[in-house]
Design a protein that fits this description.
12 helices; 215 residues
């Protein structure tokens, strides 16, 4: 019988082996998608046998959830930093949240790829992500956008669409870094490229939504 989600991260013997499997699974799931990533591929990438992989994770669905839970601490850190700025105006908090979103997206590109894949596919895995990872984050951002609209700082576009559009714009460059390198010769890992990307998203995209654009 599959182990419950709450026990996934600590289940089985060989904590290091399980962690290596989760890391390999997260990378392959984010690049190939759930259906194309096989347990054999994941075992090979993690440097373990398939019996060893199945000892830790009974099936691919359980392994997928375990890999996704690796990202929960990242989201929790965002929440902690935003709580510290809870008294700031909503538009200031929204800018902070977007900067943190971009930072996390650069440092953990698998998250953006997973959200893009599952967000297009829909279904049980997306529902799981919404419940355990992305839903609270997105609703928090939408609430900040709604408050900024109520304060007169943002144009009255639907806050939910605003949040998703800003996120999609933010991870576009990150998800397509191989194409940037091939077509334009740009190294997306160059600090100057990352800094320009952050300013473009914050000032370029968000700036067009401000009722009084930043000068």
């Amino acid at each position: 019988m599959a182990k419950p989600d709450a026990a996934i991260l600590t289940a089985g013997k060989g904590v290091r082996t399980a962690a290596r499997i989760r890391a390999a699974a997260l990378e392959l799931f984010s690049r190939l998608g759930f259906e194309r990533a096989t347990m054999a591929d994941i075992a090979a990438a993690a440097g373990v046998s398939q019996p060893a992989l199945h000892y830790h994770f009974q099936d691919k669905a359980q392994l997928w959830r375990a890999a996704m839970l690796e990202l929960r601490a990242v989201i929790a850190e965002e929440e902690r930093l935003l709580e510290a700025a809870a008294d700031a105006p909503a538009i200031v908090q929204l800018r902070m949240a977007l900067r943190m979103f971009l930072k996390v997206s650069w440092e953990h590109p698998a998250l953006g790829r997973i959200v893009a894949l599952e967000g297009m596919a829909g279904g049980e895995r997306l529902a799981w992500l919404d419940a355990h990872l992305t839903g609270p984050r997105n609703r928090r951002l939408a609430d900040l956008a709604r408050a900024a609209i109520a304060a007169g700082d943002l144009k009255p576009f639907p806050p939910e669409m605003l949040v998703i559009s800003l996120q999609a714009g933010g991870v576009g460059v990150i998800n397509l870094r191989p194409m940037m390198a091939l077509t334009f010769g740009l190294d997306a890992d160059d600090p100057a490229v990352r800094a320009a990307h952050e300013e473009m998203i914050i000032d370029g995209l968000l700036g067009g939504l401000l009722t009084q654009p930043k000068t």
